[in-house]
Every structure is written in structure tokens, then in C-alpha cells.
Amino acid sequence: TREAQLNSILATVPDAMVVIDDEGTMVSFSSTAQRMFGYEESEVLGKNVSMLMPSPDREAHDSYVGRYLATGERHIIGSTRRVMGCRKDGTPVPHELAIGEATGGGRRLFTGFMRDLTQEEATAARLKELQ
Ligand code: HEM
After folding, report:
1. What confidence tier does 82 reach under pLDDT thresholds 50, 70, 90?
2. CB 101 within 8 A of CB 108
3. Mapping DSSP to helix (H, G, I), strand (E, B) and coil, where does residue 14 land?
4. Which of 28, 38, 81, 86 could pair with 54 in a Cys bridge, judged by C-beta atoms 3.0 to 4.6 Å apart?
5. Residue 99 in 3-state DSSP?
6. What CATH number is given to the structural domain containing 40?
7. What is the pLDDT of residue 2?
8. What residue stretches are annotated with the PAS domain (predicted)?
9. Cβ contacts of residue 50 below 8 Å, gap of 6+?
10. Which helix (H) or strand (E) holds 115?
11. Nearest protein Cα to ligand 1, atom 14
């Protein structure tokens, strides 16, 4: 099936992938995203993506998405940005976020690819200490 094909592709992409609708509700959560954030897919589907980030973005994220829908002004879409996520156990997870936009069955969807920077940043910090 298409879904099995898509899942096998996603399993080989090193980035976590999260898909949300125009209200910020999560509709897909890849297995890499499950490892990165510590949630099972069933724990997050139907919930707002803001649960994956710390304050103050957590409270403001709906307004970021709303502003984009109202103005079409891109702030992250079309580029990448280092942002901070928040794992289920509360530990922060720095990552590089890229967002794409798609339309599916009349719905507006956003796809987020997230590359975990935890190891990279820990290594950089250790190197700096050694200097
Ligand atoms: C916008 C943070 C995850 C979709 C934003 C902005 C911030 C942000 C700060 C506004 C940027 C600005 O005004 O300069 C975060 C953080 C995340 C996260 C900390 C960590 C979990 C996601 C994911 C998606 C997503 C996974 C989609 C699947 C969007 C959309 C916008 C947005 C659609 C508005 C479009 C734009 O500003 O270009 N986010 N985000 N975000 N985010 Fe997120």
C-alpha cells in the first residue's frame, strides 16, 4: 500500500517527521520522532504540536501558525532554524527544524522535519572545554 511504502521511506530518513493540520493538530508522527521525543504515536495524534516545545513557544505556537495562515508571511517555512523541543520526560532537545507545506484532500497540512542536534552540540561544547 501507499502507506507501507511511505513508512519504509520514512524509516530510512534520519530526521524525525511530524505532520500537522492548519490548527496545529498532529496527524502523523514518524518512528524517529517517537524516539526523539519519547512519545508513542498514539499519545500525540490529535494533540497540538505545541506539546513538543517548551515555553514561551508552547503558548505562542498557535498564533505563529495563525499568523502564517492569515498573512502568508513565511518565517520558518522555506528555511531551517535551530529550535528547542521538549521530550516527554521534560528534557530539552535542540534540533534543526524545516517546515514544508502541502495540500491533501482539501486540507492544508504542514510537514516538519527535525534533526536532533544533541550529540553535535555536546561534542562542540566538549571541544571548546579542551581549548
Ligand atoms: C512557526 C517554533 C515545531 C509548524 C514557528 C515559529 C516558531 C516555531 C518560533 C515562528 C517563527 C517566527 O515568527 O520567526 C517551533 C518549535 C518547534 C516547532 C520550538 C519544536 C517542536 C513545529 C512543527 C511544525 C511547525 C513540527 C509542523 C509540522 C509551524 C508553522 C509555522 C511555525 C506552520 C508558521 C509558518 C512560518 O512561520 O513560516 N514555529 N515550532 N512547527 N511553525 Fe513551528
Report:
1. very high
2. yes
3. coil
4. 86
5. strand
6. 3.30.450.20
7. 85
8. 2-72
9. 24, 57, 58, 59, 61, 62
10. strand 107-116
11. 75
Q: Is the CB of 97 under 6 A from ligand 1?
A: yes
pTM of the model: 0.93
Does the CB atom of residue 69 touch ligand 1 within 6 A? Answer: no
Compute, in angstroms, the gap from residue 19 CA to the centroid of ligand 1: 12
Atom of ligand 1 nearest to the CA of 50: 21
- Cell numbers 523541543 correspond to 85
Q: What is the pLDDT of residues 118-128, one digit of tens each?
A: 999 999 999 99
Distance 5 CA to ligand 1 centre (A): 27
How many domains does the chain divide into?
A: 1
Whole-angstrom distance, CA of residue 37 vs CA of residue 57? 17
Can you tell me which atom of ligand 1 is nearest the CA of 67?
A: 34
Cell of 4: 507501507
The minimum-distance atom of ligand 1 relative to the CA of 18 is 28
* Full domain range(s) for residue 115: 2-130
Give residue-wise pLDDT tens across range 53-77: 999 999 999 999 999 999 999 999 9
The C-alpha cell at 9 is 521511506
